[in-house]
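re: ur question from yesterday

yeah so i grabbed the chain u mentioned. its 237 aa long if i counted rite. heres the sequnce exactly as i have it in my notes:
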Amino acid sequence: MNTPIYELALGRDFARLQPELQEYFSLAPGSGHYGVGEGVFDVVGCRQPWLRPLLRLATGEQAFFPEYGEEIRFRIENHAHLDPFGRSSLTARREIFFPGTTRLFHDTTSFDDSGSRPGLVDYVGRYRRLVTDLNLSVTPDGRLRGVSEASRLFLGPVRIPLPDALDAKAYAEQWWEPQDGVAGRHRIQVKVIQPQIGLVLVYAGRFDYRLEPYPGATPTSGYLPGRARPDRWERRV
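ran it thru and got these structure tokens back, copy pasting raw so excuse formatting
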């Protein structure tokens, strides 16, 4: 399966994305390249000081972090591959360079067609224990919007759906800003909101993006470099 997962999920609407977004989301398994984005977050992290100690407990998951900053450099790598279960996937590895520490945040988004509603499923963190469904749409001006839907935790053999009162939803928007910089830049903004707490995490910024070839021979469709591999894979949805 060499069709990019975002094209699989959006269908005909994929062609309505800004051309620069179509290029960004066109990585497919076996292409021989991976994507590299480097830029600056205008804001990133947790704004509520009282919530940061709780997020510090989850830093080992490499999905949540307690810091907050402005004008913070970051780097992202996007790797398209087949996961160990044969699903077309995109793994993102992010490095956020806070003063004094670097935080990792990574996830794998897979296209799953095993159920009655084929779509994207996002596995978050180094152990891929938090899983959410992604609902995508394209705005009239060609931006990509995404909302995380029902979430569940996989703790060993136990599957725990999170009730609406506890679940935190992520609201994301990505677009190309032609007036940003000399030749334009990618822009992204994400808010994670929990109904009882409010805003948990936010990040918004701009970045430049390029494709890099994998070193050596052209990798197989299932290739994922060691630095981007999770400590555990999850096939359940």
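noticed a couple things. The helical segments are 5-10, 19-24, 52-56. also The mean pLDDT is 94.
anyway ttyl
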